[in-house]
Amino acid sequence: MPIASTIDYISVMDEFTAHWQATDNAIIIAEDGAAVTFTNFGTLRATLDTAKTNLQTVLNNLENSRVNLEKIRQTAGDRVAEFNRRIRADFSGNTTFNSLPDVPNRSAGRDAFLNAVDDMLDLWNRVNALPPSPLFTAPMLLMGGFTRAKLVALRAQLDGVFTTRSTCERAAADQRLLRNTLQVRAKALMVTYRLKIEALYAPDSVPVTTLPRLTPLPGSTPDPVTLTSAWSQPNLRAELSWTESTDPELAGYQVRATPGPDYSTEDETLLATIAPGAPLTYTTAAGLALPGAAMSYKVYVILNTNHEAGSEPGTVTRPV
């Protein structure tokens, strides 16, 4: 199996480990002038596996932070808009309220939201300082008994979820960099191992002819399938289906996914391998525990030559 995606590294390293063990686990290869043993390679494999697992954890955390941020932004934006409507209705013509907070776009950043809420807090203080009148008696309450004190708490939540989002983005970038660094090292060692075996053994020997591959056999890329994806409310799961590949070299299909509404080939993980002739469907609840959470999917056609092609991505979002 060659390396076509980040999902392939561990399985390919396992192939090299088995070959090394079967050939001679006393063989030592070179890495920048240093010696790398069979045991060292096994340690690298374990370290990479842990890094990949940790990356999936932080990517899930990142998606959860997106869901929480969107929820709080929606709540805060709705309250700013409601506040403005209330001021226009009850204090029309009062020059104290000529300038109202800008209602932030629901995808706006921290400053737009916090500035709007801060303006709202200031104006709310001014409203509550007004003398009683037939139209209004302080303190002002928004719908549902929403008080200024609750807005202060909402601002703290808003600030917190923006911070959490930034923290999760940084953690994902750091963990992705670590994984990538380990993968580059692993691939370089496997290339070196192949060279070492080809230097130690005859071309027609078992060690050389059974060397694991790092690149696909000659062949063409298959046509991709068409993926359909949807949320099933009765089953509380994502339901995927796809068209059949008619490639004569078909080895099967792989269902891959990434957390969030945007598919990332760099971060994809393998969910399932589907054999030819099996039903062209797959269901999963993974990553969709929170209302508003999204997962993105691709179905890959895998050939016997190890060439592959992915479908257009499909995204499933659990309704709020």
Written description of the protein model:
With 320 residues, the chain is of the alpha+beta class. The protein has five helices and ten strands, in the order H-E-E-H-H-H-H-E-E-E-E-E-E-E-E. The protein has helices spanning 9-24, 38-90, 110-128, 148-200, 206-209; strands at residues 29-31, 34-36, 227-232, 237-242, 250-259, 269-274, 281-284, 294-303, 308-310, 314-317. Strand 1 and strand 2 form a beta hairpin. The two termini are 41 Å apart. The model has no long low-confidence stretch (mean pLDDT 96).
Which key terms come to mind for this protein?
320 residues; alpha+beta; five-stranded antiparallel β-sheet; three-stranded antiparallel β-sheet
What is the structure about, briefly put?
This protein is an alpha+beta fold. It contains 5 helices and 10 strands. The longest helix is centred in the first third of the chain and has 53 residues.
Rg:
28 Å
Helicity range of the residues? 40-55%
Shape: elongated
The helix tally amounts to 5
Reading the helices and strands in chain order gives HEEHHHHEEEEEEEE
The largest sheet, given as strand count, sense and whether it forms a barrel, is: 5 strands, antiparallel
